[in-house]
Fold:
Amino acid sequence: MRLIPQLDDMVAYEPGQPLELVMRRFGLSEVVKLASNEFPVPPFDEVRAAIVAAIEDLNRYPDGHCTDLRAALAAHYGRVGEEIAVGNGSCELLMLIGDALLEPGDECVFADPSFVVYEDLCRRHGAKAVKVPTLQFAHDLEAMARAVTPRTKLVVVCNPNNPTGTYVPVAAVAELAQRVPDDVLVIVDEAYNEFVSAPDAQDALALQAAHSNVVVLRTFSKIYGLCGLRVGYGLCAPELKLAIDKLRQPFNVNRLAQAAAIEALKHQDQVKARARENAALRAYMVERLADRCRATVPSEANFMLVDVRGLRVPPEGAFEALLRQGAIVRDGHSLGCPGWARVSVGTRPEIDFFLERLALLEPGSTEAPERRTS
Structure:
């Protein structure tokens, strides 16, 4: 067997641990998962009904072109179908864009830390990952512009940024796009855009419409609560959409996913309500953590970085200590944020559960930090 040499530098993506596995492993009766940036409640009732209705046709292949979904997205954004690419999550679209553009020796510019898949994209194609350190956990767009060279094929801006949750104004992203050569593709990854509540909240859709070398990626996984079905989409130039179609596998978005996404798009009032609820719970988390002098990084997403230094366990042991108590969070060290944990915004009871378990690790706690089973 002759595997490609790029695999030597790649590691498999490590997802958050499933609730059932953690319960069995530690003998717990209650576990809360705040590790994967999921929305904490199920899809809209109307979406659930659409999924059930679509089950009857599972013996048939889905529409391989996602015709109705692309038409719905085009109508929603005032575009045409040829400007809409649909994938098995926005991650698949990232991979397909890499397939279309990257060759050995090419360069891809992105923030450090940012979404781990960007570096995997480079390793997959033997391209160079040009990682530009963040400035106070946010994109340093000026430094990213300076990092562009004749070998650069891609520039990626994750906004809000994963794993830091920070947000940069779209006007600043537009300045970056104007400084980048026309033959360099700028990917604006807006997987968490619907959660932004900043006074200058914007999106990059107008920017994309004005620049053929800009693509905006979005997903139904997050605020729509459809992680389990995997539907992502990109607004892009028709030539990029055509390239993606040439590279994607047949029927890459399943029938239930298409039905769910089409219905979900109709309920923007519920999307806005979820955004307001997320902002309120995010503020509640920050306030409660600040009450015990525990720092967070200002976030505009549905997750945040929480400082885990100064606990009764070393920072690198905080993830495991919380896990043993049933609070699943993401170890910041593995995301390029040592000393921090990435914690999703859950429901109010889930947040309180996490805060209670974290309190057991504080220096003033008199209870053993190993685990609790209730």
Q: What stands out?
A: The first helix runs from residue 19 to 26. The mean pLDDT is 93. The chain has 13 helices and twelve strands.
